[in-house]
């Protein structure tokens, strides 16, 4: 059954929201184009945000490269090891009460010098189509959308499995230098004496995926070293 909280949503096309000629599929795609809505797919948005650090990686996913009157868009995804063309239309869930897209939405509004980019909405709808609905893409692990979006191998690491912390740190440093897209996530664990309040005090949300956009080691005034991770929500 559909989420009760989603029953009030309608479907709209971009021209109904922005007006004809005020939006593009993509121009200079970047992480600033991505804003999460009411769908709990932060893991997916973190993955495409990681890719969007390097804007040329986003157009590679699209077979349709420009806005068209019929609102038909094709993307190329890798599903279960096979390259597949996924076609979607441009009707997206809309929340009339707030006057915004219900799920993912561009961060930008129409301005005289910048058109809104809708590539995030299209990619999210294609991802939902693969699984059967928007509801079925709620919840996932950080980075799991990396392979489907790129066709490149990806790796996941779990804290409990890490014995060589310094070796893992050096691996992160090298991956960062080589511009590998990376994600990370938070998860409060009672057996580790970490709860949601601890994460909140550190400025992080519990059970949430982030893009890992930088790693750096610094030497403090007392000569001790500190490892820093730069993450994007």
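Sequence proposed for the structure above (233 residues):
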């Amino acid at each position: 059954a559909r989420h009760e909280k989603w029953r009030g949503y309608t479907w709209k096309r971009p021209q109904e929201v922005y007006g004809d000629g005020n939006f593009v599929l993509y121009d200079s795609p970047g992480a600033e184009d991505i804003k999460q809505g009411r769908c709990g797919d932060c893991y997916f948005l973190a993955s495409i945000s990681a890719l969007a650090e390097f804007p040329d990686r986003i157009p590679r996913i699209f077979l349709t490269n420009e806005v068209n009157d019929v609102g038909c868009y094709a993307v190329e995804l890798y599903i279960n090891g096979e390259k597949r063309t996924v076609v979607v239309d441009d009707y997206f869930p809309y929340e009339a009460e707030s006057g915004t897209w219900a799920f993912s939405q561009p961060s930008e509004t129409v301005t005289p010098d910048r058109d809104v980019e809708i590539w995030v909405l299209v990619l999210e709808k294609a991802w939902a189509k693969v699984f059967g609905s928007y509801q079925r893409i709620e919840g996932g692990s950080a980075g799991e959308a990396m392979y489907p979006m790129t066709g490149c191998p990806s790796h996941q690491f779990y804290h409990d499995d890490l014995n060589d912390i310094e070796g893992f740190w050096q691996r992160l440093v090298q991956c960062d230098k080589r511009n590998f897209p990376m994600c990370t996530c938070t998860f409060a664990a009672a057996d580790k004496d970490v709860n949601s309040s601890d994460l909140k005090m550190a400025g992080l949300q519990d059970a949430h995926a982030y893009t890992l956009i930088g790693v750096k080691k610094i030497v403090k005034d007392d000569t001790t070293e500190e490892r820093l991770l730069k993450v994007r929500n």
